[in-house]
Design a protein that fits this description.
This protein is α/β, with parallel strands linked by helices. It has a domain at 3-266 and 447-498: Amidase signature (AS) enzymes (Alpha-Beta Complex), CATH 3.90.1300. Helices cover 41% and strands 12% of the residues. An eleven-stranded mixed β-sheet has the order 1-3-2-4-6-5-10-11-9-7-8, with helices on both faces. Helix 1 (3-10) packs across helix 3 (28-46), helix 3 (28-46) packs antiparallel against helix 4 (54-69) and helix 11 packs across helix 14. The longest helix has 24 residues, at 381-404. Bound molecules: glutamine. Glutamine is lined by residues 134-137, 160, 179-184, 212, 320, 434.
Length: 502
């Protein structure tokens, strides 16, 4: 196959790829090989993948082609390649969550999300890089080295799911999966000019998702278009009896919404608290233009005051570390992965301590210490208890807001992609990247990030965040599709296609 052919395959949307496979214009094997070749050509520079499952992917692709030959009906994403965040277990395929402590661990079971992807005949190309245990906003906390932003290889792709977003932006895969505890799907989408959705908490099963902060963690879809994101959302969502927090209700009609984009007659909220110090001028400019666009498209803009959002970051950085300190206790050197110092003489406690010392990176240790402190008796009410009260106030602010509006919009991140190394030794500067994304996780509702332009000062992508109430995820797609269509008309095509091609 010629290089030109390869380029035309890797640039297709997931929806178009699936159609061409179903019609026989392309085979799933051809499509998979084109993406594997692309990974081979560029991933040395991007480092989106921790593990490429060449054989597994080709076997899945061959199975799709055989199914088609037998005349069996194919699903809407059959044969389409996908990059899976290394936070989800995959039977027989290494899973590390970006940590040394899980190096070499081969899970004996599939996450529910992995199983659903396989059942939908999606081709899993491999596992993507991430901040260790999803703790971070830049993918620099991975024990296996950072991922680079395809727009500018000296800059971060966002985090924690930088690998998944970079794989999309570098055309290594048309679909990807992320997890969003405080923004890790939406931030990388924002910094790489791709689309990412954090579904309603409980909308996508957490069974087999390596836990960071269980009351906040949520898996979700990532792609280069709103429709592709919706198609993937529909595949992975739905009730799972293996996850006690999974919602037992029909999946919101996300695909239908993505096919019928419109904001006419909708009330769209702009929250006072998502502005001010720390916001880059070009980000604010593109956001304001997006609000103008929404007006032109027939939406009514409503100003909102959500005072407790100012406390979201502080509450999150108590709740998430508290839950992580408990979740990560399972890495005790006995059950999974790494074991250090087991010489037959040392005690179990010593081996556990040596393993955790060697296996966890600095950010993970910082959070375990912070969380253990916040949960200790005597401090529990002052820290963890107060943070939970703030969480309730934030949920109430959202409830009041959604009495007045259908969706809320904001910038996804206060800045564009920052240089690798700039914030890695300054945790507080790193935490500020989460300013706009965290309230949604604390309240459990749904949100999307999609491209809304390039910042004039640095030419880097800016993301627009759309937030909807819980179980109204379809509204994200309805609004997102309308915005995407209008902006692409303005730009003369998808913005990503105007970016650098590695
Ligand atoms: N940056 C946030 C954190 O470090 C969010 C990460 C995430 O969503 N997984 O906790």
């Amino acid at each position: 196959m010629s290089a030109d052919n390869d380029q035309s395959i890797i640039k297709l949307t997931a929806a178009a790829t699936a159609e061409k496979i179903a019609s026989g214009e392309l085979t799933a094997v051809e499509v998979t090989e084109a993406h594997l070749a692309r990974i081979e050509a560029v991933d040395e520079k991007v480092h989106a993948f921790l593990h490429v499952d060449r054989e597994g992917a080709l076997a899945q692709a061959r199975a799709v082609d055989a199914k088609r030959e037998r005349g069996e009906k194919l699903g809407p994403l059959a044969g389409v390649p996908l990059a899976l965040k290394d936070a989800f277990t995959t039977v027989g395929v290494p899973t590390t969550a970006g940590s040394k402590i899980l190096e070499g661990w081969i899970p004996p079971y599939d996450a529910t999300l992995t199983r659903k992807l396989k059942e939908a005949d999606v081709v899993i190309l491999g596992k993507t890089n991430m901040d260790e245990f999803a703790m971070g906003s830049s993918t620099e906390n991975s024990a296996y080295g950072p991922t680079c932003n395809p727009w500018d290889l000296t800059r971060v792709p966002g985090g924690s799911g930088g690998g998944s977003a970079a794989a999309l932006a570098a055309y290594e895969a048309p679909l990807a999966i992320g997890t969003d505890t405080g923004g890790s799907i939406r931030q990388p989408a924002s910094l790489t000019c791709t689309v990412g959705v954090k579904p309603t908490y409980g909308g996508v099963s957490r069974y087999g998702l390596i836990a960071y902060s269980s009351s906040l963690d949520q898996g979700g879809p990532c792609a280069r278009t709103v429709l592709d994101t919706a198609l993937l959302h529909e595949v992975i969502a739905g009730h799972d009896p293996l996850d006690s927090t999974s919602i037992n209700a029909p999946v919101p009609p996300v695909v239908e919404a993505a096919r019928n984009g419109s904001v006419a007659g909708m009330r769209v909220g702009v929250v006072k608290q998502f502005a001010g110090e720390g916001y880059q001028a070009g980000v604010v400019q593109r956001f304001n233009e997006s609000v103008e666009l929404l007006k032109e498209l027939g939406a009514e803009i409503v100003e909102l005051d959500c005072p407790s959002f100012d406390l979201a970051l502080a509450a999150y950085y108590l709740i998430a570390p508290s839950e992580c300190s408990s979740n990560l206790a399972r890495f005790d050197a006995m059950r999974y992965g790494l074991r250090v110092g087991d010489d037959g003489v040392r005690s179990t406690e010593e081996v556990t301590a040596l393993t955790r010392e060697a296996g966890f990176g600095p950010e993970v240790k910082r959070r375990i210490i912070l969380g253990t402190y916040a949960l200790s008796s005597g401090y529990y009410d002052a820290y963890y208890g107060s943070a939970q009260k703030v969480r309730t106030l934030i949920t109430q602010d959202f409830e009041r807001a959604f009495e007045e509006v259908d969706v809320i919009v904001s910038p996804t991140m206060p800045t564009t992609a920052f240089p690798i190394g700039e914030r890695v030794d300054d945790p507080l500067a790193m935490y500020l990247a989460d300013l706009c994304t965290i309230p949604t996780n604390l309240a459990g509702n749904s949100a999307m990030s999609l491209p809304c332009g390039l910042a004039p000062e640095d030419g880097l992508p800016v993301g627009l965040q759309i937030i909807a109430p819980a179980m109204k995820d379809d509204r994200l797609y309805k609004v997102g599709a309308a915005v995407e269509k209008a902006l692409e008309e303005r730009w003369g095509g998808p913005l990503l296609s105007k970016g650098p091609m590695l």
